[in-house]
Amino acid sequence: MNTPHRLLVAITTVLGCVLPASFVQSQYDPHPAGIDYQEDYRNQFHFSPKSEWMNDINALIYADGQYHMLYQWGKAIRHGGYATSPDLLHWEDEGVALIPQESFLPAEAERNVSGAQVYSGSGVVISGETAKKITGSTKEAMVMIYTGTKAGTCIAWSNDGGTTWHDYSGNPVANRTKGADPRDPCVFFHEPTNKWILALYENGTTLYGSDDLVEWKQLSNIDFGFECPDMFELPLDGNTDNKKWVLHDANGSYLVGQFDGVRFTPEQETLVMDVGPDFYAGQTFFRPNLPSGDVIQIAWNDHWNGGIGESPWERNATFPVKIGLVTHEGKMKVTRTPIQAIKTIYQDTTTWTNKTITSQDENGGLLKDVRAEAFDLTATFDLSDTNADQLVFQIANKEIVYDIEKQLLLGKPLKPDDDNKLTIRMLVDWSSLEVFSAGGVFSYSEQFAFTPDDESVRLFTRGGKVALEKLQLNRVKSTW
C-alpha cells in the first residue's frame, strides 16, 4: 500500500519525556525510498514490512475500527514494528512503535539502547480504572505487554488509535531481570475469576494473575512449551456447552484441557497445529472486542530457517486463520482455516468438475492454460478407485505431492476422509505456501522461493489415474 509513512513512536523515559519523532526518524527509518511491493518474492496478500527484518508477532488488537499488529522488527536490535488494517487483508506498515531502552534499571541515569531489545509479547484493550492507572485517563487504550530485555515484563500503551505509543512509567511491571529470560508474556482476561492472566515462557509456562496489569502474582507452572505462549478457550466440535482451553508455544505444539483461573490441566498428550517448516510464534487477537468473536491467529512465516534471499525486507507473516477445535481420530485437535474475507480479494475464479487426472497431464493437462502466482486453490479427489502412486501439483519450481499409498502430503501424515475423499487447499503467494486439509486439522506453512515470473500451475499423477471431483482456482489480487 503506497501511502505516506506515518512514524508512530513516542517512548517515555524514566523522566517521563517523550522522544521526538525527528530523533526516531533519523535513526530508525523503516521506509527507504523505491519500495513498491513488486520485488521478487514479495508476498501480494500476506503482510511483510517495507524493509528490514521481521519475526515474531507480538500483539494483535482490534480497536478504533482497525486491526492493529505489533511485531518484532530489526535484525541487529529488536524494535516493536507496527502495522494497521481495516480488514485483516490490506495492511499499512506504520513503522516503529517501540524503541529498546535500558532506563528501567535503577543504575541507568540516561537512555542507552546498547544491548537492550524489545522481545515478544501480546496485546489487550483496557478502559476505566485500569486504563487510568496506566495512562492517566479512563479513556479506552491499547496496551502491549512485552519483554524488555535488561528490564523485565513491560507495558506500552496508546489511547489515540496508535498515533503515539508510550512506555508505562512504572516499568517493569513483573519479572525484573538483567537478561532476556523469562520472556514472551501472553495476557488475556479470564471472566470467571475477573482477573488478567499472564502466561510466560519461564521453566516451561508460568501463569500469573493480576487485577490491573501492573501488580502480578504467580499462580502456577506447567512443564510445557518453548517461547511465545498463547492461550485461549474454544468450543469442542462447535458445542458451546463443552469448551476447552488450548495452550500452545512458538513451535505450534499445543495442549488441550481445562483452566480454572489458576492451573491449566491437560487432558491429552502434546500435538502440533502446523507441520510445515516455517510456522513460528503464532498469536491470536484479543477477543473481547473482536467483531467476529472468533479466535483469529497470525504467525511468523519462518522458523529461523534463513530466508530465501528476499530484499530489501526479510520474512513475512502467515495469512490470518480462524482457529477451531474438533474431535478427529479420537483426539481433540486444533483446526486452522483461512479467514472468509479472502473471498473479497479474488480477482477471478475458474472451476473444473468431474475430471480424470493422469500421468500424461504432466506435460499439459487440465491446468495447462492457467497462469497464476498468487492464488487460493481447493481440489477434492475421490481415491476409492485409483491405481496411481502419487498426486502432484507443480507450482512453478515447487512440487506439492500426496503419496496415495503412504498417505503423506508433503511428507506429513494425512489420511483421506471416511468415504475415501481427499480435499487439499493451498494458498500460494510468490514466496509463501500454506496448505490445509482434513477440515484444517492438517496445516502446513512454508516460505519458498517460487521462481519469479513463472506462473505455471500443473496437476498430474504418477503411476495411474485419479478422479477429480472438483477443483476451484481463485486468483488473488494484490493488497498493496
Instruction: Supply the helix-strand structural class.
Output: mainly beta
Rg result: 23 Å
Name of the CATH homologous superfamily of the largest domain? Glycosyl hydrolase domain, family 43
Mean pLDDT comes to 90
Task: List the strand order in the largest sheet.
Answer: 23-33-24-29-30-31
Bulk shape: globular
Topology:
Layout: H1 21-28, E1 52-63, E2 66-73, E3 79-85, E4 92-98, E5 118-126, H2 128-135, E6 141-148, E7 152-158, E8 166-167, E9 183-190, E10 195-201, E11 205-210, E12 217-222, E13 230-236, E14 239-248, E15 253-259, E16 264-266, E17 271-272, E18 279-284, E19 296-301, E20 313-314, E21 321-328, E22 331-338, E23 346-357, E24 374-382, E25 390-395, E26 398-403, E27 408-409, E28 412-413, E29 421-429, E30 432-437, E31 442-447, E32 457-462, E33 466-476
Parallel strand pairs: 1-20
Antiparallel strand pairs: 1-2, 2-3, 3-4, 5-6, 6-7, 7-8, 9-10, 10-11, 11-12, 13-14, 14-15, 15-16, 15-17, 18-19, 19-21, 21-22, 23-33, 24-29, 24-33, 25-26, 25-32, 26-27, 27-28, 29-30, 30-31
What does this protein look like?
By secondary structure, the chain is mainly beta. It has 2 domains: 289 residues, Tachylectin-2, Chain A (5 Propeller), CATH 2.115.10; 132 residues, Exo-inulinase, domain 1 (Jelly Rolls), CATH 2.60.120.560. The chain is built from 2 helices and 33 strands. It has a 6-stranded antiparallel sheet, with no helix packed on it. The longest helix has 8 residues. The protein is globular and about 70 Å long.
